[in-house]
UniProtKB/TrEMBL annotation:
Region forming the signal peptide: 1-24
Entry-linked InterPro entries: COBRA_pln (IPR006918)
Protein name: COBRA-like protein 5
Species of the source: Camelina sativa (False flax)
Family: Belongs to the COBRA family.
Keyword Lipid biosynthesis annotated: no
Keywords carried by this UniProt record: Glycoprotein, Signal
Domain of life from the UniProt record: Eukaryota
Length: 204
């Protein structure tokens, strides 16, 4: 129940906030910037909002697919606004079954018309990412660190799209993202933020 409540709080926060990191806002060098914002801790991990920003001035992404490799034995308990393409072997879990137990999950955006309770702000566009637009989803991660000292960044990110190939750099720990509430009277921030930059390589 605690994890579910935390996830609901994150949904409300992100729905009424905006991204204010000057680093990402002005890094318009023709790349895809992925921000991994840890929003709160759970008993066995954390809830994160992952957002891809298209800073390519003249190139749309016709349906993104994102992947990475966990460095521990992390699992994805649940997702909002996206889903993994496979669940993997979760047979060691007897009661609560994770959404994904794969060490290198592949994540795709949900379709337009997805039920509202499965959405998060800026999701559910079939992965279509136009210039200057962002796409987000939420993950509840388990079997992971529960503090800034023990949480480990995922590695080996890949970002692909039909007929497009990107090369992603290493995951970096950067200044936490700040969020402004809808009434612009309060600023909050992520607990931690990890950044991945993916550069267009070639058309395939």
């Amino acid at each position: 129940m605690e994890s579910l409540f935390s996830a609901m709080v994150v949904l409300l926060l992100v729905s009424f906030s905006c991204f204010t990191s000057s680093e990402a806002r002005y890094s318009n060098n023709g790349n895809i910037t992925v921000k991994w914002d840890l929003m709160n801790w759970t008993p066995d991990g954390y809830v994160a909002v992952v957002t891809a920003y298209n800073y390519q001035k003249q190139r749309s992404v016709p349906g993104w697919t994102m992947s990475w490799r966990w460095t521990k034995k992390e699992v994805i308990w649940s997702t909002v606004g996206a889903q993994t393409t496979e669940q993997g072997d979760c047979s060691k879990f007897k009661f609560n079954i994770p959404h994904s137990c794969i060490r290198k999950p592949i994540v795709v955006d949900l379709l337009p018309g997805t039920p509202y309770n499965q959405q998060i702000a800026n999701c559910c566009k079939s992965g279509i990412l136009k210039p200057g637009v962002e796409s987000s989803f939420q993950l509840a991660v388990g079997n992971a660190g529960t503090s800034s000292k023990t949480a480990r960044m995922p590695v080996n990110f890949t970002f692909t799209a039909p007929k497009q190939q990107y090369i992603c750099g290493p995951t970096k720990n950067v200044r936490p993202t700040r969020f402004i509430t809808a009434d612009k009277r309060r600023i909050t921030r992520a607990l931690m933020t990890w950044n991945i930059t993916c550069v267009f390589h070639k058309a395939t």
